[in-house]
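Q: Structure for this?
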Amino acid sequence: MYNSPVLFFESVTLTEKLSPKTHFVKAAIICDEAYKEEAQQLQAQLYDTPSDTLIFENPADVRKFIVEQKMGTCFYIVANWDDAVTIFSTAVEEGVSEEELQVKTIGEKRKYVYCMKCFTPSEIDTQAKQVQCGCGAHLNVGPFYSKVRKGYIGYPFVPEAEGVM
Amino acid sequence: MFTQELDFKTTDLNTFPFPFRSDNYRYSNDLRKLEDTNLVTITPEYELQVRAKRRLLDEQPEVRYQSFPHTMEMQWEFLEMVFEMAVEKYPQHFELIKNGDEWTFKNNILKEEQTFTFGDPSTLPYEPYDFAGRHFHQDFVLMVNREDNFYLEIGQVSYAALFSAHWNTGMSFDEIHGPVPFVSRNGDNLIDRVRKFLLGINPGEPWTRINWNLMANRWDVNYETMDVWEPQRSLITPENAGKLVRLRVEEQKFYRMSRSNAILFVLNTQFLPLEDLQLRQEWFDLTYSVLQDIPEAMAEYKGIAPYLPQSVEYLRRVDEKLKNQALQTQEG
């Protein structure tokens, strides 16, 4: 569905530190092999809440792991950005809501701007306020994100008019 | 190439939805029940405005018209609704002949006739919603009701004010309006209140509200052309503001569609150059007073901050001139 949740730069599910969400009866942790320690730290905080952990290798395993979980399970993801997007998308496809997800990404996040001149998203530096699109248009990176367009709005501007050369 | 220079304005002031009721303006929940529930209106500018709209739709189809493939049933519902309204209100201008699913729609103003099979989009030159909308000068936005929110699933927009059918498609009501400094005099979140209000609209009981803005020598400012119109705003001076700056009024109407349960937003946009405000002294006085009192945040949000002072200065000079003339008449 076009308005299904997506993982993007400012997703509400993103966190700097994983912490147990209350009101869930079980935890299901999916992590990259390299970040097993993060998963173990979370498990230590879960006390009596039962948990399962899956080391991410491929989307098919993730799907099977998610489908097997019961209602009332909270999903925790610890992975690099690309893997986290794959796991997140698979979870959403299987009906998991953002309330049932918590995501910690390791390393660089990815951010995309959607050019309002050529209608194409492109990856940008996460700190960039102004960028030039491949089509040549200069863009101010706006605060609005579109799930349909898969990027933050890029308002076209004339550099000379704004004193940017 | 399509020109954005305004070549039309409201000429029949009785049809201009003047927006101000008091001498200062703040955002408020000003929704009221629609008295004439038929959305079709034929103004003196009908043909000019419809032709301009069609030109924009043809030149920038991706910018001006957006729909999701799953909306086809709602599109036919819209077509049926507006065509029947047109025929009911203006039988001399429009005809709809139904022979089972074989329908013929006639627009006698534009001298056009189209026969099609209701329910079969391949029998129309455009998608049903797009085709039907091209016979009326308004913008049409269809928002589908899911849970307690509305999602923009079809948009035909030719008179945008910081809006884009292309960009906003698929967005919820909250996403389209946020984050903006929308609070009432009491500090309430107006967008939330309006959304809740829309949830309660019943079929057959449409509502309306008036939105306003100023436009600097354009009839629409969308995101796609921001690099063009943004620098142009600084070209407004007190000397040219009377001709180039228009009071842009958007009469919004909200209809609950009985079959799909979606909300149809109908936006009738009309323009009046500042110099024409003198044709009604009360309108001139109210506009001058309101524009002097616009808070900075509101001016920024509306995109009028770069030429608001010049517009106010133009009105001040006219006001001074009018008062001097009145004084001289008195003395004479």
